[in-house]
Write a structure and sequence with these properties.
Layout: E1 13-17, E2 23-27, E3 40-44, E4 47-48, E5 52-57, E6 62-71, E7 79-85, E8 108-111, E9 114-121, E10 127-132, H1 136-146, E11 172-174, H2 186-195, E12 198-204, H3 214-217, E13 224-228, H4 230-241, E14 246-249, H5 251-260, E15 269-273, E16 288-291, H6 299-304, H7 310-323, E17 333-337
């Protein structure tokens, strides 16, 4: 599937599982007429960085790809967590990619105009801290010049940067697209506004969905930074005060809100989402999630187990397969309401 093959909104599908586990099949365009006055929809407005960098491991001269996977701090945009690969590109599955030449602290990496050094390894030979030489503004400029969006072989043609930006994209802080947001368009937002459904955004630095290494994949999602504005925090407080539901657009929004709202109250500011949300997790803020089609074992799917029990999710999976729902970032959508306790 190429970027040009994104599902036409008129034909995109939406599977909805309500709090009782009842499943409905709708056109995704029906999103504009869903939800009730007083409800609040929260989306991730992060734009996506060109976070795949092809280059050379200076000590050996061997090819290397670094996929930037996280910030060490929003306040220093020259230092990142990265997953490194050997020769090859996105046309190969991540599981089939060759490992890079052994990487050690102090090694230099050259990515076109970008020069980086390895600060250290993170308990795995392919997970590293890297820092880029130069002023932050020049690093970001050269990242845009040389980097490409992270992508996987189910999309055969190279993605352009604007292909991985949602319509509400703002600051470029995400490493992969907050893809649940592809379901949003201005018609949907207009429909919610007319129905009295609130809409707010936060910024969450969505990370990698796959590393190709089983041990690393079990550590996903990595720590991810988020930023919640005063306007978003105020909208959440208002929704809760009138007993409105909070609907998260994507797993990144769930992680940010549940990390920031450990006592049920979400305050403005920056923070870091750590660890997995999975079966048994107590959701204190979010009542429903709009997301893509995910597979068991993926961290995104594990998060859905906090909303619905396995019997409901098994029926969702069966319905998705029977009706031909499309997976991946440009696919169809699921709306899962949190089951009653």
């Amino acid at each position: 599937m190429t970027a040009a093959d994104r599902i036409d909104r008129r034909f995109a599908k939406l599977l909805a599982a309500n709090h009782d586990g009842v499943i409905s099949h709708l056109p995704r365009a029906a999103l504009s007429s869903l939800f009730q006055p007083g409800d609040l929809v929260v989306a991730n407005d992060a734009a996506t960085l060109p976070a795949s960098l092809q280059g050379v491991h200076r000590p050996t001269g061997e090819p290397i790809e670094a996929r930037l996977a996280g910030w060490l701090s929003f306040r220093d945009p020259t230092r990142f967590v990265a997953v490194v690969f050997g020769a090859g590109d996105y046309r190969m599955t991540t599981e089939d990619r060759a490992p890079p030449a052994p990487v050690a602290a102090g090694d230099g990496l050259e990515f076109g105009p970008l020069i980086a050094s390895v600060e250290g390894l993170l308990n795995h030979p392919r997970l590293v801290h890297v820092s880029f030489a130069g002023h932050p503004a020049s690093v970001m400029r050269d990242l845009v010049r040389h980097g490409r969006p992270i992508q996987y072989p189910h999309i055969p043609e190279p993605l352009r940067l604007w292909d991985v930006w949602t319509k509400i994209a703002a600051d470029p802080i995400a490493f992969e697209a907050p893809s649940a947001g592809f379901a949003l368009d201005w018609r949907t937002l207009k429909g919610w506004r007319e129905r009295g459904v609130g809409f707010a955004t936060l910024s969450h630095a969505a990370g990698l969905s796959s590393t190709g290494d089983a041990a690393l994949d079990r550590r996903l999602p990595f720590d991810e930074f988020y930023r919640i504005s005063e306007a978003c925090a105020s909208a959440l407080e208002g929704a809760k005060s009138r007993s409105g539901r909070v609907i998260a657009i994507g797993t990144s929004v769930v992680r940010a809100l549940e990390s920031a709202g450990t006592d049920g109250t979400v305050r403005a500011g920056e923070g870091r989402a750590s660890g997995r949300i999975a079966r048994g997790a107590r959701l204190r803020v979010v009542d429903a999630i709009l997301t893509g089609v995910h597979q068991p074992g993926e961290s995104h799917y594990e998060l859905l187990r906090a909303f619905a029990d396995d019997s409901v999710l098994d029926r969702v999976r069966a319905a998705v397969e029977e009706r031909g729902y499309r997976a991946h970032e440009f696919g169809d959508s699921l709306l899962i309401e949190r089951q009653a306790a």
